Amino acid sequence: MKTCSLFIKTLLLYFLVFSLYGCRKSENKPDYPAGSQENINSWILDSMKVYYYWNTSLPANPSLAVDPVTFFKGIKNGSDRFSALVNPDFPESYPPSLVHILGFDWITLQTGSGKVQTVVSLVVPDSRAAGKGLVRGDMIKTINGTIPTADNIAVLTSNSIAQQSADLEIEGKTGVVRISRLTNSEDPVYTYKVFQSAGKNYAYLFLNSFEDAALAQIKKAFTYFKEQHAQELILDMRYNPGGSVPVAAALATMIASNTTTGALFVEYRGNSKAGSRKSSFGTEIQRLQGALRTDFIELSGYRLGLNRVFILTGTHTASAAELLINSLRPYITVIQSGQQTLGKDMASFVIKDYRNPQIVPKWEIYPMIFKLFNAAGKGDYSNGLMPDQLADELSSLPLKPFGDPADPLVQSCLERSTVTTTSRLKVESVAEKPRVIYDSRVPVDLKSSLTITRPY
Hints:
Residues 202-351 form the Tail specific protease domain. Helices cover 26% and strands 21% of the residues.
C-alpha cells in the first residue's frame, strides 16, 4: 500500500542518521565483511528496529550466520503475514504468480461427490489469454497434456509459470489452446456498465487494483454512470489486492457525497518511533502526481448522489481495497456483500540501503509499519472485514462473467434492495458448494503488501 508524506520522510531521515552514526563499529558490534550474511542480516535487523510495527518483539541477539530470507522469517512477529524481504537474484523471495505471467488465474475445486474440477476464475482483458478465447468459468480438461488433480495442480501451475506458457484443453471447445506470456499491462478497471433491475439503474464497476493507472478509467466510468443516471453503485473488488492510498481516497471522494477536503480519510498508527498521524481526503489526493494530479473539487464533480454503496468482496480483497471499505463507513452506508476479506489492515513502504556507496545492494525490505483506522477510530481488522451479507460466487457454476446480474454476488445486492432489515443477510445457495483445494491467486495475496513506492 502506498504511503508518501512528510511524516514518513522524517522516519527515513531518522533511519539515515541511525545508519550513519548509530551503527558504527564498536566493541559490541563487529564490522562484518560487505556482502556477508552477517552484514546483510545486521542491516535488516537495524532497519526493522526503527520501522517495524512489532519492533519491540524483535529478538535481541539472533544468529546472523544464516541466509537472509531465513533470517527475516525468523525475526518476524507471529502475527505478521505480509512483511517481505525481496532480492531479484533470489526468485524464492518474490514468487511469481500465474496471472502476472500468463494473464489468467485458475482454481481447483472438489464437489460434494468428490469430483475435482479446475476452473478459470479470471482473465486479464486484452491479454493473449483473452485473445485465444479463454473466459472466466471455462473448465480445464488438461494442462500441458496432463489432467489436473488435487495432487498435481500445484506442480502444473509452477511448471506453466516457469515455462511461461500453458497448453490447455477446455471443455466444450475443440483443440488445444496455447497461452503464452502476458505482454500487455493490466488495466485495473476490467469492465463497467449500467443495467436495470426492479425499476432502478445500477452502475457496476469491476476494479482489480488501486494502481495509479486505475484513476483515469475510474473517472471515465463515473462519467458514464452520470450520463446513464445511475441510482445505485455496485463496486466489485472481490479480487482486488490493493495499491495506492491516494487513488483509494480519490475513489472514496467520488462515492461519498458528504465528505469534505478536510474530513479524515485514514489514521496511521505506528510503533513508538513512528507515532500516529491523521490524513484527510484532501491531503491524500494531493499526493497524486504528474498526469494523475487532481483535487478534491474536481473529483467531487463525479459524484452520483448516492446514499449507499454495494461493495463486493472475497478472500482476496486486501490492503487499499479494505481501507476503502473501512474509510467509507463513517460517511456513507456501505453494504459489503460476498466473503470475508484477507485482513491486511496495515501500510508499508520499501526500505533499501540508501547509503552511498551501498553496502547492501539489491535487498529490499517491505515491513508492516502502520495500522490503519478510519474517522470513527475503527480498524484492527487483521482477521478480515466481515460482509454484511454472505454470498459465494461458487454457489452457482459455471462462474458468471463479471457484472452479470446472475452472478451470486451481484444478485445478493439486487435482493438486498427489497430487504428492509439492517441485519446481516445470508443469500448463499442452500445446495452444497464445492470446496477450493487450490487457488493460483494466493501468491498475489502474499505480494499485496509490495504494491508500494519509496516515499519521496
